[in-house]
Every structure is written in structure tokens, then in C-alpha cells.
Fold DUF503 domain-containing protein.
Amino acid sequence: MLGMVSCECMIFEASSLKEKRAVVQRIIKRLQNKFNVSVAEIGFQDAWQRTEIGIACLASSRAIAEKELNQALKLIDSFPEIERTITTFDWF
């Protein structure tokens, strides 16, 4: 089962693309190191305070993939400088 989640996030304290990318890269690296997922910034690359992060997980069952993706979302929520807004799950 392949699970994918995309989440739009706001980074309110970013005043430049450089500051935004520093936050996003820190989150992506932490997700890659802690979980068995693939992660990338998939939208709003040219916006200062907005981003879309895509996370994909391949597992033997939907329950395992869903658990891993939900843990990844909890990690994103633990960063105080970013606020997750719209989150969508897709299953293949």
C-alpha cells in the first residue's frame, strides 16, 4: 500500500525565501532521518510564507502506512515556526 499526504503550511516569521527554505529543509531532513518516508517540497517554492510538503510511505498494509504518515505529521506540528493548514491523504 502506498500512502501519500500533502500538507500546506504557513511560516509566519519568514521574511525571505532564504529563511523559509532554512525552515523547510530542517523539517525535511528531520523527517527523512526519523521515519521511513520520502519527503519533498512540492508547492509554493516561490512564496515566502507558504509551502506544501509531500510525504510518501510504502508499506505492506494501509494501517502501517497511515501510522507512519500520522507520526510524520505530528513531527511537523512540533515545529513552532510552522503551522499546518490543509492536509490531504491519498492511497494507491
Q: What stands out?
A: The chain has a mean pLDDT of 95.
